[in-house]
Write a structure and sequence with these properties.
about 210 residues, alpha/beta, Rossmann fold, 5-stranded parallel β-sheet, 8 helices, about 45% helix
């Protein structure tokens, strides 16, 4: 287990992290973050960890930058989990290219945010892939998403962060299933899909 007594663990991201944490499923949401919190707490209640969910549906890395001060720096995390990038890509395929984030901007912005958090809070990082639940590896959105996931993997190595290979977890699941078994739109998972993400997290954090 990477977490230590009394630490504060902050998750930030888009709808996959949000999952109703601001309304009907407060305060953790009903997705992977809630599952991770529940299983870690059940296994290690003695640690007395504090968990914070700062996911907001629809966010790109630009949106994270706009709220970084209040939702990350002011939270003073010991561990910061960042999972962002799905909307940065998806907007290109929704005829909303003005809201999409090109990969160069995505990498530069995310690197700046991570460096700021580490410098100002001393936190350690957990970086999770954006993903697409798609069996066709030649699908244009899958190909683009994989490139953004490669950025996350490289930044994890650069910052000495824990890397959560979410895309690989879904790819393994899809060897015997279909995308519709996990999500209605290849993006927003059902409970079993969130469990796939949570298992990938738990394998990394112990």
């Amino acid at each position: 287990m990477i977490f230590e007594q009394g630490q504060r663990v902050v998750f930030i991201g888009d709808s996959i992290t949000d999952c109703g944490r601001r309304d009907h499923a407060a305060p953790y949401g009903n997705g992977y973050m809630s599952l991770v919190q529940a299983f870690v707490t059940a296994a290690h209640p003695e640690l007395g960890l504090t968990w914070v969910n700062r996911g907001i549906s629809g966010d790109t890395v630009r949106d994270l930058a706009a709220r970084w001060e209040t939702d990350v720096i002011e939270q003073r995390p010991d561990w910061l989990s960042v999972k962002i990038g799905i909307n940065d890509v998806w907007r290109f395929f929704q005829d909303r290219a003005d809201q999409a984030v090109p990969i160069g901007e995505y990498e530069a912005t995310l690197r700046t945010l991570l460096a700021d958090a580490v410098k100002r809070t001393g936190c350690r990082l957990i970086l999770a892939d954006p993903y697409l639940i798609e069996s066709d590896r030649d699908d244009p959105q899958y190909t683009m998403t994989a490139a953004y996931a490669d950025v996350v993997k490289a930044l994890a190595a650069e910052f000495g962060a824990r890397h959560v290979p979410v895309q690989a977890a879904f790819d393994r699941a899809l060897t015997t299933t279909t995308p519709a078994d996990w999500a209605h739109d290849r993006i927003h998972p059902n409970l079993a899909g969130h469990a796939v993400i949570a298992r990938a997290f738990l394998a990394v954090i112990g």
